[in-house]
Amino acid sequence: MRDTEVMSRPENSLGEALRAWRDRLTTDDVGLPATGRRRTAGLRREEVASLAGVSVDYLLRLEQGRARCPSRHVIASIARALRLTGDEVCHLHLVAGLLPPVAGQVPHEVPPSVDRLVSRWEDTAVGVFSASWTLLTWTQSWAALLGDPGTRPPRERNLIRAVFAEPSAAGRSALLPFPADQNTAAFKAALVADLRLALAAYPGEKELAELVRESTQVSADFREVWGTATLGSRLGGRTRIQHPLVGEIVLDSDVLKVPDHDMRIMTYTAEPGTPDAEKLDLLRGTAVRTALPLSAG
């Protein structure tokens, strides 16, 4: 038995809990448009799957009790999609056969206050990252601009891996193109400096230790920056994206921190009235829902 597993759990208690929590939500609760007449109350399974970044088939198998060993990342994503409270998140972990999150671990549950904020920014490309720089939730505008992260496994949604991996590595361009009008070395230094702070805040977190070990092995750039005891500059800046639908688009990127929950909110915006703003508007209208092959400039 894994050290994260619990000894026993009631028969299909996970599926029953998931259905009950899905039934109590409305499209207004999660910031989705109401579409078509509904035979029953609550969200459709397809809507929850989309919000959580999992397949509809997998969510169906969880609800029916045919899938029994969801990962922590999947459980955290479903908890966010269902807008669970802290106590409900603990219960979800237990019925999924996992020990609840404990103090000292990097938070991966997006709090309701941040969820509400993101839902009101649906027209803006917004992504919420954990302290380990794993992408937790995002707007449809983010998916339209950078490709849908929901098509990738959680491991490939990590920004450290995306930035310091080889340029051809999967997941890189779906998270963050490199800054255009800002020194790339300074950006990397800022990112690693933030990761160093996270490692100090969560010294027992295996995920962080593994991320540092892996990045040190695969990236000479990471080894160089990690071995330099200097503070990084701000993470935002001007960013150039080569998009397959609208061509080159130059945006302002900003990173806002949520100290109480140790999360980072990244946004991409354009100055109103500019050609770049028009391109963003076009992308919003297309509502791209699939991963797009992007390249950084």
Automatic annotation (TrEMBL):
Pfam families hit by this protein: HTH_31 (PF13560), MLTR_LBD (PF17765)
Membrane-crossing residue ranges in chain numbering: none
GO MF term set: DNA binding
Limits of the HTH cro/C1-type domain: 41-89
SMART domains to which the protein is assigned, alphabetical: HTH_XRE
Protein's recorded name: Transcriptional regulator
